[in-house]
Hints:
Elements: H1 2-12, H2 27-33, H3 38-58, E1 62-65, E2 69-70, E3 75-76, E4 80-84, E5 87-94, H4 102-114, H5 117-123, E6 131-136
Amino acid sequence: MLKTSLLNRARRRSKYCSAGCNTIATLHHISQICWKTHGIRIKRHDTLVNSLAHNLSEVGWFVEKMPKISTAERIRKPDLVLKRSNVSAIVNVQVLWESIPLDECHARLVAYYSDSREVVEYSTFKSCKPSITTLTV
Length: 137
């Protein structure tokens, strides 16, 4: 009897997002798009950035977290700018849904930061060209 009533309740439940998004409540929607889980997604991203920054500074990198770089188009905020010896890097952390092609997302962010003269100048260290990369999780 209990099993039947649980099944009936599940069948009556709406397939639409309970946050009022007027879209079907798929795993992709809930974990990547829904406004109700936005804060959790930001916290997950920031936890990864902070952990990466801490670990890199422990092994000798100068780490600048989320600098605001003014460009002709807009302000750009990479997650990390790293500098050490003759090397510099711009790192952007992405937490993506599994069905999105990772190479495509990586290429888009690399282009976003490397196409800006101001970002490249900001991150240049001791006359070296910075490496622009993403960490995709």
